[in-house]
Amino acid sequence: MNPPRPLGRLAIITPVWGEDESESISVVRLVAGALSRHFRVDVIHLDASASTAATVRDSVFRVHRFPVTLPDRRHEVLLGIALGLDLRREALPDDLIAGIDGQAHVDGDVTACVEDLDPQVILLIGCTHPYDLTRLRVARDTRIVFMPLRTRAPLAKDRHVQAIMDVADLVIASDPGELRHFKESFPARVDSIEPLDLALSVNRAATEDTLFGVRFFQPFVLVIRRFGSEPGAREGSVTHAIVTSVAGTVSRDQVPDRHWRTTDDVIPEVLPVSVAEVDADQWRLSDNINMLPLPVNPSRVNLWRLMAHALFTIDLRPATTFGREAIESMMFDSPVIVPDHSAAMEHVRAANAGLWYRNNGELLDAVRVLSDRSIRERFAKNGRAYVDAHHSNLDDFVERIGRLMLAAPPRTGAE
Amino acid sequence: MEDLPGEVDLDAALVVERLREIVNSAPVEYPRNWVPQGTFDELLVRTEREAIHFHPSIHHLHHRWDMGPARRNSGSGKGPKALFLRIVARLMNSAFDRYFTEEQEFRAALAQSIDALAYRIDEVAGNDEREILDLVRTDLLSLSRYVDGRIDTSGTPSERS
Fold first, then answer.
1. Å from B132 to nearest chain A CA?
2. Could you give the C-alpha distances from A27 to A24, A41, A197, A403, B105, in angstroms and in order?
3. Closest Cα to residue A329, out of A221, A231, A216, A255?
4. How many C-beta neighbours within 10 Å does residue B129 have?
């Protein structure tokens, strides 16, 4: 029997780390976990909330924490407003951005830390500022991989991104929109831009169980306002009464057979559509008359149970980093309505498995469209095919991301 | 749904674009938000009693409860006064965001409650009208029966004589 192959070392430099359940952090931890099968993983955490530098153990990772002072975003916002510009950072003149960026700095010598680690691969996740790789004196054969993990801003104009692109061997895009944007913005680098295709593990068997009689509810639409302890504004103006009034009623033949229990109950020909709301730890089921609190644990498994039996899912949250719930909803054959200009929207668009909205009016239009069973079923079929192809197989993902790191061609002329 | 490309392979992007086109090309204001329930009780329309749903103040409420457009529209002027007002509006919006969100929810709930009450009032009024009509009809039938009975019992003038 051959002795185990010694693992190489990989350093992740990122401002996104911690214990919260936020989507960005869970995505980074999933990636780090997959990479720990191939490398000894050190995390260099550029932590805006830390006051002192420290090195700690976190699960299988060693985390080197460096306090970081970020530029004051309020300056950008005030300048943008005063100049009557769009509030996107890219709308501001370059010299003003450079002045604001000059406020940022890291307390501690990240360069020395990287030199000590001497990693085989440096993975830069969601990190374009204030620390960029051009300032790292890394060995010539160290591979540099860049995972932007952001979806909304056009990246090509960002000078930090351009600086990183000059030295990165590989770019990993976390959603199809980001992949398309990078390929269009850096046509000379098309061969070194790859999709992440993060695999998510779901427990399909659990969804067969009843969730407080979830399978015995009236047909319902799942509305996600907030899930878990994730931060973000809560969208409250689209109430359950609005959704039920727009969704109206469905005839019995519009509801999938899997919804019904196998009893001899007489099912009415026409049924009102209810709304199941997930709002942090308050879950409710409402129709146009009653509102019933769901006394269940607000866990992800229970969310899957709701997804598996919903007519469709509406994601009312602000754009998230990866669109995990949209992908999971597609895994459970539930078409999904998501906000425009989000990672979730890019997945839904690529899958052709749902609709997206810019405002409440468009959201309600989308609800009306998905009231049609044939459309729902076609979207559900497309969504399932998409996630089966890209986001289902965890073992494949672990192998693939390891291969990507090791196969990234070494830089040329970056020194 | 008849406006949507449905027979060919369904394309979500086309559906979204088509919906946006329909909205943009609508000759009248499209119902962008929550739409009040309609009673459309023909009986009420034909009576002199005005349906509460047609009351101008309820009409005003349904068109003005949503603060979203007002909060998003910070003007398009380029002068110093416009710039100053835009900064103030942004600051106020961000500072009072939580309050405005709660206020929006409250206004939505209020509009829906008043709509439900109006619907119920119209329903009660409709039932009331029906009951009155039933009573009148019953009275008329009784009267006609009475008159008919009187005619039967008293006989024709030739018989009486």
1. 29
2. 5, 15, 11, 19, 33
3. A221
4. 16
Give the span between the Cα atoms of A304 and A206, in whole angstroms. Answer: 8
Whether the Cβ atoms of residue A384 and residue A330 lie closer than 8 Å to each other: yes
CA dist A111 and B137 (Å) reads 95
- Give helix A360-369 / helix A240-247 axis angle, nearest 10°: 40
Q: Which pair of structure tokens corresponds to residue A121?
A: 């691969």
- Residue A150 neighbours by CB under 8 Å, 6+ apart: A126, A178, A321
pLDDT profile of chain B (161 residues), mean per 10: 49 87 60 53 61 76 78 76 85 86 83 82 81 85 85 68 56
Walk me through the domains of chain A, giving residue ranges and CATH numbers: 8-199+393-406 (3.40.50.2000), 205-390 (3.40.50.2000)
- Torsion angle of the four alpha carbons B42, B46, B47, B48, in this order, in degrees rounded to the nearest 10: 130
Interface ipTM above 0.95: no
Lookup: tokens for A293: 């609190």
Helix/strand/coil for B69: helix
For residue B77, give how far its alpha carbon lies from the nearest alpha carbon of chain A (Å).
Answer: 8
Residue A64's CB is within 10 A of a number of other CB atoms, namely 23
Return residues 91-150 of B near A (CB < 8 Å).
97, 101-102, 104-105, 108-109, 112
- Name the β-bridge partners of A45: A14, A65
Q: Which residues of A touch B71 (CB under 8 A)?
A: none
| Cβ separation A360–B4 shorter than 8 A | no
Measured between alpha carbons, how far is A305 from A298 in angstroms, rounded to an integer?
Answer: 11
